[in-house]
Amino acid sequence: MAFQIENKLVIGVASSALFDLTGSHQVYQDSGPDEYRNFQERNIDVILGKGVAFPFIRRFLNINKCFPRQMPVEVVLFSRNSPETGLRVMRSIAHYGLDISRAAFMTGTAPYPYLPAFNTSLFLSANEQDVKSAIAANYPAGLVLPSKIVDDDDDVELRVAFDFDGVIADDEAESVFKKDGLDQFHAHEALHVDRPHAPGPLADMFQKLALMQRMEERAQRRDPGYRKVLRIAIITARSAPSHERVVTTLKSWGVSANETFFLGGMDKARVLSVFKPHIFFDDQLTHLKSSPGGTIPMVHVPFGIANRRPEA
């Protein structure tokens, strides 16, 4: 039986994250909404180029091809376009064969208030204000940062990488680090090693991806020839002794990652260049600006103390 949307892992994606709208946005900036509308209508059959989130979304939807009876994942398009100007986006979706049937066209207004209506575990957008507003409303969201698009058709695996603090978990430990320094951070985490962290903004997404992995494990037990498509990594600046609370937290949720890296402040790009995720989530822009060659799709999660302005 197919999953109802209440039980699916649903990702909401803005057209600005899914496709390259650089040219369209420039028309809007230079000439206003009327000329933008005319431009989109004139180019309705001109297929849009792939955006930063495209390789991730394409592989994410392929999970349904592995489980056609359950169809456990879904992508919903959220757009500031009107339905008329959004036709070009929908035709581009059809051209690329993306199984996206649900959409919300907001005609110039922010789409984030509707995220709970679609049971959304993640909202991806290139609109910084929309993402910040969603996070402020306690909705899971991430800002896709500019990068080169690499989409190898022969690479069927979906690789997703997460930072831990401020992404999967809350920013409790990060707050201690920012206020009191590294030694007190380690002491705090050692003291609370048996107490799981509260969930962060992408905890629900992480847990549902772990459910997809359990489905894959069952499929492989039934059919040893089944090839798993999903790999998850946690890449955190933590090191011993603060690593134990990460394990405690994940164990309390009944989930785990395929690969977990405790880097102790080492440049994350060194690991990312090997793992080659199709998307990487981090709450700190300084970690995201060290992408090797600009080819790793980076997503900023503007949550918690790392993203608050210092008090004057």
What does this structure look like?
- The structure is a single chain.
- Helices cover 37% and strands 17% of the residues.
- The longest helix is centred in the N-terminal third of the chain and has 21 residues, at 22-42.
- The termini are far apart.
- 41% of the residues are buried.
- The protein is α/β, with parallel strands linked by helices and 312 residues long.
- It has twelve helices and twelve strands.
- Helix 10 (243-253) links the parallel strand 9 (230-236) and strand 10.
- Helix 7 (172-180) runs antiparallel to helix 8 (182-191).
- Strands 5-4-1-6-7-12-11-8-9-10 form a ten-stranded mixed beta sheet, with helices on both faces. Strands 2-3 form a two-stranded antiparallel ribbon.
C-alpha Rg, in Å? 20 Å
Termini separation (Å)?
Answer: 56 Å
Question: What is the overall shape?
Answer: globular
The total of helices stands at 12
Summarize model confidence as the mean pLDDT. Answer: 92
Assign the structural class, choosing from mainly alpha, mainly beta, alpha/beta, alpha+beta, or little secondary structure: alpha/beta
- Beta content comes to 15-25%
Helix content: 25-40%
